[in-house]
Write a structure and sequence with these properties.
302 residues, alpha+beta, Triger factor/SurA peptide-binding fold, four-stranded antiparallel β-sheet, three-stranded antiparallel β-sheet, 14% strand, elongated
């Protein structure tokens, strides 16, 4: 069986199982909670300085304060999330879920999973109050340090389509299904060119789920479109109808609604800036908890 210590460390489980740890002396008090040396001993190296040890205690203080808020707010992880993490741990350690549950340290693993998910839930709750906005100056400064290049741009397109895969052949037994569908789509095209709304006809006739939005798609990456779509799109101008064409088992007519070029690098950069601001907001929230808490550190024990 896989060493249970591997399971703990693989998922950053924080409690110490080190039998060589220092005596379980109290190194800090946070409100009504005690922090013992064992809570940080696993992360202390022989070369750790006193300042580094105090930093570990500070982190533990922050954890205690967050756990207090989790209890106050009644935050509990979803059972599905807990089970998903347990299954992931079992899989990554080549265990079945039953084998993991039979492990001597299962209760500790489960406790840590619940704690990590609860901490994540607390952060999400706190960040609901954050009004995160990016200024153009912030974006420009970040781009100046890490500029985009032509390889970062991605062409995207938004289309509308009417898709037909089946048709009533009762009155036209001499024509094939494909012929009838093409004829029907040509009739729809004539109506659209005469002024009838593409969207209204798509809602009435299209047999694709996109009919709900009038046949309109989300933004699509051009380089990921099937070859038959690329061929049709290359010959179309915006708002111009394609002739009926077959893709898979269905026939369709499409038109291009809009095109754009997306800077993937810029999107990623903005996401990083937003995440940085969220982290700052949350860290400031934790600092505020410390200001209103009773905290005493016994650094002479380090």
């Amino acid at each position: 069986m896989t060493n249970p210590m591997k399971i703990l460390f693989a998922f950053a489980l924080i409690f110490s199982l080190n039998s060589l740890a220092a005596p379980n002396s109290i190194v800090a008090i946070v409100n009504d909670e005690l922090i013992t040396f064992d809570a940080i001993s696993a992360k202390i190296r022989p070369t750790s300085t006193k300042a580094e040890k105090i930093k570990l205690i500070d982190n533990q203080i922050n954890l205690v304060l967050q756990l207090e808020k989790i209890q106050k707010f009644g935050i509990k992880p979803k059972l599905s999330s807990v089970n998903a993490m347990l299954s992931n741990i079992a899989s990554q350690n080549s265990l079945t879920l039953a084998q993991l549950q039979a492990n001597a340290q299962y209760d500790e693993i489960l406790e840590n999973i619940n704690q990590q998910l609860s901490l994540r839930g607390l952060k999400q709750l706190v960040l609901q109050e954050a009004d995160i906005k990016l200024s153009q100056a912030e974006i420009d400064t970040a781009l100046a340090k890490n500029p985009s290049n032509s390889d970062n741009f991605n062409k995207q397109i938004k289309i509308a389509q009417i898709v037909i895969s089946s048709v009533d052949q009762t009155d036209s037994l001499l024509q094939s299904k494909d012929s009838l569908i093409q004829q029907f789509l040509i009739e729809l095209s004539d109506k659209i060119n005469a002024g009838t709304s593409f969207s209204s006809l798509a809602k009435l006739h299209s047999q694709d789920p996109s009919y709900k939005s009038g046949g309109e798609s989300e933004w699509l990456d051009e380089n990921r479109l099937p070859a038959v779509f690329k061929q049709q799109i290359s010959q179309l101008k915006t708002d111009e109808l394609s002739p009926p064409f077959q893709a898979g088992q269905a026939w369709r007519i499409i038109k291009i609604i809009d095109k754009r070029s997306v800077d993937n690098h810029l999107i990623a950069l903005k996401s990083q800036l937003v995440q940085s601001k969220k982290n700052t907001f949350f860290n400031d929230w934790v600092k505020a908890l410390r200001k209103n808490a009773y905290i005493e550190i016994f650094d002479h024990k380090l």
